[in-house]
Amino acid sequence: MKMSLTEALAKLKLYNKKVEKATNVSEKEWLMDYVKGEAAKGELTHLTYKELKDVAEARLQKVTALIENRNKLKGAIAQANALTKVNVAGKDYTIVQAIERKNSIYLEREFLDILKNQVFVIKNKVSEINERAQQKANDIVEAQVQAEVKNKKTEEVEALYNLIYNKNKAEILDPLNIEKMVEDMEEEIELFEQEVDVALSIINAKTEIEVDI
User: Fold this and answer.
1) What span, in angstroms and rounded, lies between the C-alpha atoms of 56 and 43?
2) Could you tell me if 77 and 5 are in contact, meaning their C-beta atoms sit under 8 angstroms apart?
3) 75 to 93, 158, 211: CA distances (angstroms)
4) Residue 70's closest CA among 24, 17, 9, 15?
5) Based on the number of CB atoms within 10 Å of its own CB, is 151 exposed (0-12), middle (13-18) or buried (19 or more)?
6) How far is it, in rounded angstroms, from Cα 161 to Cα 134?
7) Among residues 50, 4, 2, 15, which one has the least CA distance to residue 200?
8) Which residues contact 105 (CB under 8 A, 6 or more apart)?
9) Using one digit for the tens of pLDDT, what is the confidence trace for 110-147?
10) Is 204:5 a contact under the CB 8 Å cutoff?
């Protein structure tokens, strides 16, 4: 039987429900029974031995066939998912790879949040230190200028300010260019999330599998 992956996935859901229903039976649908006394009929199903045997065989065959067909279908889907390529946001994945990334992309999001927090904390810390360095340089320069206002030249004042500021300022150390990495990661993750469902729907509709069920 040939079908698209979309049809196969829908049929698999149906098989799962059928197997669950067929295996979740009441006492009257059990495959075995018991009797009391030499000639008594079964207490649960009230069937003769032959009737119970026939019914039990039919029920067992039905459940076994459902499970076997479900497993064949599941296996064919898994094989197609492992071999079929899908392009999402400019990158090629197998279907199973794309599904796995979709399901686990929260881990990338969590890592991205950690990096973004590091960038935020470091930039704020450097900004605070530099503001204090500016204030300190301004205070010292102002005191010096007031004390020697007639003799201080503009370039001397600027040199003094720079000397004090440079001595107390902070700079960001980012050897891996994390700030740019964060921007690229966020853009790439968002693009993947926007495109993955549509890409999977299209490839599932186009891809055919053949299953003997």
Assistant:
1) 16
2) yes
3) 19, 76, 9
4) 15
5) exposed
6) 8
7) 4
8) 189, 192, 193
9) 999 999 999 999 999 999 999 999 999 999 888 877 76
10) yes
Torsional sign, CA 98, 102, 107, 112: positive
All structural domains of the chain with their residue ranges: 2-83, 97-206
**What whole-number distance in Å separates Cα of residue 114 and Cα of residue 137?**
35
Tokens 């495109």 sit on residue:
195
Q: What angle do CA 121, 123, 126 make, to 5 degrees?
A: 105
Q: Under a CB-based contact definition with an 8 Å cutoff, are residues 45 and 28 in contact? A: yes
User: 85: which strand partners?
Assistant: 94
Q: What is d(CA 180, CA 172) in angstroms, rounded to the nearest whole number?
A: 14
Q: For residue range 4-26, list pLDDT tens digits in order.
A: 999 999 999 999 999 999 988 88
Higher pLDDT, 43 or 185: 185
Instruction: Write the DSSP assignment of 45-64 as a string of letters.
Output: S---HHHHHHHHHHHHHHHH
Locate tokens 């040199």: which residue?
A: 159
d(CA 207, CA 81): 10
Q: Which of 65, 77, 79, 5 is nearest to 213 (CA)?
A: 65
CA-to-CA dists, residue 57 to 27, 42, 103, angstroms: 16, 17, 41
